[in-house]
Records
---
Amino acid sequence: MIEELRNKARELLKTKQVEAVIGYQRASDGLSAIPCVIRSEEEAGRLIWDAACVYNLCGYLKDFRAKKLGIVAKACDVRAMIVLISENQLNRDDVFIIGMECCGVVDEKRARVSGRDGSDISSADKCKSCASCVPLAYDCLIKEKREKAKVSEDADKDKYEPVRKLEAKSLSEKSKSWKDEFKRCIRCYACRQVCPMCYCPRCVADQFMPVWFSKAGGIEGNFSWNVARAMHLAGRCIDCGECERACPVGIPLRDINRKIEKDIKELFGYEAGMKTDAKPFLACFDKNDPEDFIK
Amino acid sequence: MKYAYFPGCSLHSTAREYDRSAKEVALALGIELAEIPDWICCGATPAHITMQLLSIALPVKNLLLAKKMEACEVVTCCAACFNRLKTANKFMKQRGEEQLKIEKILGEPYRGEVEVRHFLDVLVNVFGSKNLETRVIKRLKGLKVASYYGCLLNRLKDVTGLDDEEEPRMIDDLMEVLGAEAVKWPYKTECCGASFSLTKTDVVLKLSGDILQMAYDEGAQAIVVACPMCQSNLDIRQAMVNKKYKKNFNMPIIYFTQLVALALGVEMKKLGFEKHMVDPRPLLKEKEIIFSKA
Amino acid sequence: MKIGVFICHCGTNISATVDVEKVAQVTSKLAKVHFSTTYLYMCSNPGQELIKKAIKEKGLDRIVVCSCSPSLHEKTFRKCAEEAGINPYLVEIANIREHCSWVHRDKKEATLKAIDIVRLAVAKVSRDKPLVKTYVPIEKRVLIIGGGISGIQSAIDIAFAKYPVTIVERESSIGGRMARFDKTFPTLDCAACILTPKMVTVSQSQYVTIYTCSEIEEVSGHVGDFKVKIRKRARSVDINKCTGCGACYAKCPVKVSAKFDMNLGLRKAIYVPFPQAVPNVPVIDRQNCLWFSAKNASGGTKKACGLCKKICNFGAIDYDMQDEIIEEKFGAIIVATGFTQFDHSVYGEYGYGKYKDVVTGLHFERMASSSGPTGGKIIRPSDGKEARDVVFIQCVGSRDEQKGVPYCSRICCMYTAKHALLLKEHNKDAQAYVFYIDIRAAGKNYEEFVKKVQDEYGAIYLRGRVSRIFEKGGKIIVRGADTLSGAQIEIKADLVVLATGLIARPETVKLAQMLHIPYDQNRLFTEAHPKLAPVETVTSGIFLTGACQSPKDIPDSVATASAASVKALGLLLQDKLEKEPLIAKVDRNLCSGCRACVVACPFNAIDMKEIEDRALKCKRDVAEVVEGVCTGCGNCTVVCRMSAIDIEGFSNRQIMEEIEAL
Amino acid sequence: MKWFISQETIKAPFQKILEKGCGEKVARCYQCGKCSAGCPMAFQMDYLPNQIIRMIQLGMEKEVLSSKTIWLCASCFTCTARCPREINVAEIMDFLRRHAYRTRIIPSGDTEIPLFNKIFLRNIELFGRLYEVGLIGMFNLLSGEFFKDFTVAPKMFLKQKIGIFPWRNKNAKALKDIFRRSGGLEKAQRGRLLYPKLIFLNLSKKFIGKIEKLK
Amino acid sequence: MINPRTQELKNSRAESWEPKIAAFLCNWCSYAGADLAGTSRREYPPNIRIIRLPCSGRVNPLFVLKCLMDGADGVLIAGCHTGDCHYSEGNYYARRRFAILKKLFEFLGIDPRRFQMAWVSASEGDKWVKVVKELVEEIKKAGPILAKS
């Protein structure tokens, strides 16, 4: 599989179909995978593919604006690209998607704890509920030889089970637990930096005219930032889980993202990153949208 | 000035003092009032309620009698008679079947040649209030009166043509000429119940009671009238009003002629104040219009 | 920054519940507030002079006026500020009347709230920016929707000013309801005699285009530049070739009941609705035409009629004619869609519309018309016999909250009086009985007319509604009351004429949504202001006339038609259209080009534009607002995550400042 | 609702008879109610003046003529003076009473007034001028109110307000002729000026009332 | 850290607390509806502070957030009924946006009573009064927002 990938990269570079290929290489720890940019056939040997290839590489695409690029992409990464394409941030013709059939990636945080042996660690949460190991769009597909069933063992289950459990808690419980979570936020904005959807030239959190919410780390400011982030991802988040992974204080950001994802799916039948010509969820409407909450 | 005088039934009975005082005033001012010989009742309300032709024929009969006196103007003091005479006269000025019927009833032609005047009209408009003012000897200073015209004196305008229908001023102005004060009040032309004095006494008590109350409320010390029916309802029934509505009215109801006569210096004795149920003399004494020796 | 705060007493409207002096005293201490004062009537001339004087003497550079709703005097005070040399958009209104003094009683609470309201306005004004009005070009043509008397009058007025005007009429002839009337109150001149000349005038004017059998399909754009799609339904007769000779409908073998005559008479399948029709061109009723029914029934194999085509010497009959969509641009639109009659079949007590001899006023008009289906005889539709005892019932559907509409239809009293008169004129022996609740004859010579009908024509007016109507022995038994005498009344009538109310046409809602104009709970179009802007709508460039706005008689319809024309002409006479600068603006540095605003704009007022980004050294797309099209709704500002697009006058900074001041 | 009316009633000639009889166009009335608003007697009436007019408009002859209202009218002319449609309501009331006498429809209660009028006229006919003692005496006798105004009477005599003896008319015959001829021309059935039904009604009512009071 | 104003509010509200409610009203329907309540002299509680906006579609969720974080005890958004929007669609966008936000707030433990939406037309002065009365009642039940945080 890895060889197949490397060959494809060499071919693309050789035929000048792309100026570079973005993919993963092995980190110096010998276990983790880190992003790399392959600009020549010779370098293609650095490319790797395994369950350690956790990162969503789409974020790098914006650094190569208007250049033809190849990118190694899992199913979830491709959905992010679809959103970016629909939002005019990426030209489909500018990117050659090397689609990777994926059986799930490791839970990086747990992997760190459990000794990093890479072979016997559990998949990340996001993969447990992922039903599609084949990307929605690709220019070439590199197939997985492993058994597929293993990847989506939980996929039949209610995807939003955990969200529902959280919803069911009492108001004061919810209030208390989220306050505890947000209290810890250090406003490092790692969640934003790592998110493939956060491409604003200047984030609202950094704006001064007006100051949308307190920039200082206090419960009000932290709460606002997290709500603002969630709302800005509403109908766009494809649940790549990068924010939660990147969060240094371990705020369960995916819970928030998935709550919105669930509501949008249930109330409006909308899913992000499915079609390149989809209208942005919050920039369109249906006359029959529910309004029972309005007096 | 010579007039045929039609007193009417009331002035020969319940309102003798009206008759007497009117004659005194006429005498004092040199107005000659020659009573129509053998005059008959004008028929009053019951006539026009019962028989229309009769209600015309009776007054016209009187006018014919006046015509025979070679008087061209008839003067009356009673507002009701005045109204009936005027109505009949106006009626006879038109020509039609009905008029022929009247002539047939009376056996004489009549075309409304005789004019009908109320004594008030003669006093204010013919003699003239300015002239009258020069003849006032005793000004009625300090006397606050409510002038009460009743319904028939000024209604209907095209019949009587005397004064404003809703806000008449003739008596008020006359009172001021005499030096009395005429209070402003809204009941100048309200109905006192008039002809129901006997039949619907209760109604008369209520209507007259309302009028008395209003006059009292507006500060009047006496009510001045120009109609014998109004006078009798307000005066004779006053005691009953007091009894029925638990009031304490002691409101003299005085004919305007009585006050004019007083002002012209006519002796009080000649004016029949003693005939009033509510004696006006204490009030007039209090205002020093008459004196106790009298 | 020197902010001036001006607090109006509004007589005692504000000062009775708000301690204005205290408001002045407290607000004068707010940051940036330089001056604060009160006055009895700020909107009066002396009030405005006071503001101007304060601006000059105290050197104020923005002002807050604390008074009534901005919908009333915002413009006044903006102009006032402008005259004193301040940009008019540096003015804010604190609404302490409608939102405070008039809705609270406790003086202490109201005063505190008023202070808060003023604080909000001060916060907002501190973030106001000077703005300059923009201008857009105007398409110098007017569209009139509806060809009744209102539409015709508007067209005549506009054509008189030599501006092109287009009438779109749904029926095959213009003329509308008035064409169906016999005589008109109170002067009793015949409707056709006064309408026909007007119809001819518009049809002959070089400035007027008439689209009959046509409807509005789509409206986009905005004042000065409306883009309208008009559907011309297939008439099956070529309007240019037809001479109106009438040979076709003389020959046509099909007879169906005529809708124009309220189904009291018959017409052909090819027909002109009435002899004076404009254009005098027949139309084929495809539902009833033998040619079309044969074609539809057997796929064209069966032998079809085709008589009219054969007889026509001018080749004007065109069975293959298709609907046509015309797209045109207009600077202004006048809506003159008129009304429809209330359907009395909801009244079970009046026979659910089943009794043939219970008809509506419009039936009566057609019967009374000498060119109508009965030749001017007032008959019983059931047996054709002349009607003698005719009962008229007013307020059918009107003033009935249960089954009808709550409002008074305004013209029924008059047309019923007219009917009672016409009845007597058509038949000396007839007797009219009119059941009414009130007689509303508030027009020139109207009351006199009604009295004439009562005095001279012996119409018996009975004050009360009719409770029940039923048929018995060939008569219509009417049971009503006369509340004046306290009696129940029963009348055995030959004919009952219901004065059915005027209601909005069913398609008004669709049209309103197309035109973006509001309508009320009765689906009547809403004027911009019931008193001061009676023919305008809140959407600039769209005007109302006639009964589509509220029930109106002919004089009122004509008056509003001329009023609407003047408004439209006033617009067209401008070189360019002044536009409020309260529109969206893009900060290109912040724009990521995500296109959300483009998608979300209800008016397609945002385009994408490629710019050269020097910092990134590449080309990129950014949003750009089409100023003439933007209405300033602000929807784009919310879908923009980076707040690169903002609304002048309601900017993010202004609103956030207000929230801060809460 | 007190009545049920059909168009036969509405079309009845009553309104026309009235128009002919007193020249008043009742159809002109638009029921503003001003006559009732100003009527001093309205509080005693069974129908307000405007209702009477309305009933005439609707041809309700019997109901109108048997109403108390027409007898309670004091002929003060307030209504006529103020009517915006220039209808002489007082004159209509007069007509109605005359018409009632003529058709001999008398209200079921309150019969004193029709009786009084008759007695009054008989008094004039007999004496030429009003003879109060005769009038009061006769009225009291025939209405059954024998002792009415007994407290006032002595005072009146004392103050010479009313005379004890009637005035002697020298022209009695002429007077009689006037009465006779007008009665004849007007078809007023003058001969029955005091018809027994009226008196009987009055007396019996009064007696029954008194007996009930005693109980 | 707490905004100094909110601190001040916190102190001032310790004793007799009256809720402070921010209301975003569209200019064409709801603001006019509130005006109508005024012209018809309908009384309602004084707790509401109105911010006039062109359209309910102009209300940014961040405005709502800012209100609640700055100490407003409740937020109301009022606009035209669907189909009646002066800008024809603005309220449809608002409806979608705030359906999500309302659910999110509840998920994060904010009392749903604190954030409400209503359609109030220009002719519904009575409805405006009703909405305000109910809202104030509900927020009084929910209590001061700062006491809870």
---
Amino acid sequence: MADYSIPADLMEALKNKFPGLEIQENRDVIVPAADLIPFMSEIKDNQDYAMDFLTNLTGADYKDRFEMVYNLVSMTHGYTLMVKVRIEDKEKPEIPSLCPIWGGANWQEREIYDLMGIVFTGYTGHPTRIFLDDNFQGHPLRKDFQWQGGREA
Amino acid sequence: MKTQTYSLNLGPQHPSTHGVFRIILELDGETVVKATPVPGYLHRGIEKLAEARTYTQVIPYTDRMDYLAGMLMNWGYVQAVEKLMGIEVPERAEYIRVIVGELSRIASHMIATGAYGGDIGALTAFTYTFRDREYCIDLLEMVSGSRMTFSYFRVGGVADDLPGEFYPAARKFLADLPGMCDEYDGLITGNEIFQARTKHVGVITPEMGINYSLSGPTLRGSGVNYDLRKVRPYSVYDRLNFEVPLGKNGDCFDRFRIRIEEMRQCGKIIQQALDQIPEGSIQAKVPKVIKPPVGDAYAEVESSKGVYGCYLVSDGSPKPYRVHFRRPSFINLGYLAKLCEGWKIADVIAILGSIDIVLGEVDC
Amino acid sequence: MLSDWGAVFIFFAVALAFGAGGIVTSFLIHPRRPTAAKLTTYECGVDTIGPTWVQFKTSYFLYALLFVIFDVETIYLYPWAVKFQSLGLFAFIEMIIFLFILIVGLWYAWKEGALEWK
Amino acid sequence: MEVTKDKHPVEELTKDPVVIDQVKRLIHIAPLEKILNVARAHSLWPFGFGLACCAIEGLMAANMPRFDLSRFGYEVMRGSPRQADVMLVCGTVTHKAAPFVVRLYEQMSEPKWVIAMGSCAISGGPFVDSYHVVPGVDKLIPVDAYIPGCPPRPEAVIDGWLMVKEKILNPKVVSKVRG
């Protein structure tokens, strides 16, 4: 498969603009939650990257942390980038919402809140459930979610 | 004289919502003031169920998401597992995947065309498209044994080889396909009532389309050239030449027209794939119990509704730790609320039909 | 004289019986089990939201009014069209004047914007 | 549908068994319900209630040219429960959809029947362990015919319709073990 990730020099430019950045060997980027919004608006507005298409936005529930995963694509240059953000606080997971930057994040964030329980701050209309009833107890995709399936023993 | 607005349910049980999807319309007379889509009536929690299944057992869940294009759903998931495990799929299996994937795309577009004709009122169109879809489904049934929920793909290849009588039947179907598409053009696209109802209705500008992460015919209807098979060719698509039809002014009519164009292109792709298919094995060397290394992977495929991605996290056990499906119908609907404002009720049904959603995929 | 009208009357009676007959027999024989849930309003399977008795736009009413006017007009056209040849020139002029008056009415409604759907 | 009793009116007139047998053999007074059932059984109006994948097979493919449900007279697909006879539940019934499934069933006018199509409607199917799926629609509403399959082929759907027809024509067929 051809390599569509951001070339090394542009990655270095990002590195020194955001010291907290951590670049993994397969060019995924781990961004501290604090400067998620500046980082995202930087790679969207700066024409070198022009990451204007948010393909995927999802979350994962690990033992010690939550992890948000964003996949971005640049329509003009054809770069793809996977951005990860770690949320250490398991009791009240919160992360700034990307809706002001990409409209496509709206429904995906509501889905992650509904199923995973991660609250997205800084956008009216969040956090509201999208699939389950409002009086549904708990968030199903969490590892500690207990439920009673329909299979008769 | 001030008129009050009233709320109306374009509800879960409605002939035109392609399943159980609800839009709460705030109406002033006929004009929509505010639209609030309410999905979730078919939410079966596939992502949670997948965490309790082994990697191969998840495959039947994928083609119950977008049940109109089952093969493409299998492809997206299987490609993510192969990327995670670094498996190289043999040549013949890749060509078989392209053939059945494009056949599944044709079957899906046929329903989309017929259903959209039905939404606008041309009920006979549905009969024509379904009559032709049966031929397409015969081919897929010959290959996989099932009509809709194929579960034909395996990690590292496909379940079994193309039967002998598949090739003449496929060539005959491909010979008839352009005739079928002309028939739909003549029957629906050329109908001026249809054009009056869909031209310049629900216009999506390219910038808004990209900003709202739309994909597939919904985005290409606005002229944005983003087709994964061309932008980031996976499998053997780089060896097949075909054009990507684009719309000009992003209205319902363009989204509908390029679906029929895409069917013609699919015919060309299958033709070339049938000519170039090599001999060889159809399944890579894969361990009996699939235990991918610890890590995660994200892979995307161009399904009939848009970009269908799968994000997999593995913790080394035979069961995936986390599976997330990037479902095009779900994300394409994110823009519906803004798109419907200002249009009349009949146009809302035209817009919803043109985005072509499948509820199994929206609610996952 | 009576027999002519008798034929018309019988024709009218048969038509009435045919229509009413279907309704009356179905009323007599269909099972009636009205339950509370069955009598609730059907709106795509969920409850209605907000007040449903609202003041809505007048364009509905104007459209219906214009339709009734021109529907009645066509009723007048039918007998004239049947006896078109034998009635001669005078009836023709008469009908043209009648049509012209209604066309003026339509033109006025159109100009006033009764047909646009604001 | 309550089973009509088979008492012949001649039994009030005479106790003589010979006369009763002759009259019963010659004069067959079918209660009105039986006559109506013959009419109902051959023109059931389905209630297009497509939830998931089975809707494509049951509502669309079965009605379309190749399988053609209208050969049996069941092709008039009604969108509203008021005009429908049979509720074809095809697809997974989730907890969020359960209230309006029950409501639609209750809003249908008598006599009404229910066909549970597909393993999701019969018993929750592949999604039975899910937190959001009702394991079988018969937990919500009484079901008359079950069509197994995931999704069942259109021929199986037509067989399901014929089962309902069989049940309407002579209700005692239910107790007969089929096949």
